[in-house]
Amino acid sequence: MTDQRINVQTSFNANFCWELEYHLTEALINSAENRWETFWCDGIYEPAINEQFTERNITSIKQISTVAWIGKGPSRQYKCQMIIMLGRCSRRRALRGLDISSCLPDVEMDDWFEVDVSNELVIIHLH
Description:
- The protein is an alpha+beta fold and about 130 residues long.
- It has 4 helices and 5 strands.
- It is about 30% helix and about 25% strand.
């Protein structure tokens, strides 16, 4: 039996973080809330804590925590805690070690992300 940590860590790799970074940036630009149109995501770190990659964490807690950079420009970037909330699709794919990029919501919608600059927090909801 394959260790679930290996499967989950395979899904939350640098490629996924890069794709999420650009996906979030496009969603911020397209957001109906004009206050986000000048913001972009300038990087997302791969989650470093191995405990996040357990089957229990994925199926019960249903989230992965990491760090992201959000900003308006080089002088106005915020290092934020990013919480990636896992939906049914992303949980299933992560437990099997599959790419979860297909679980990213439509960039035309802005109900899948929350940015709280004052508390330095970004919450992402995957399918």
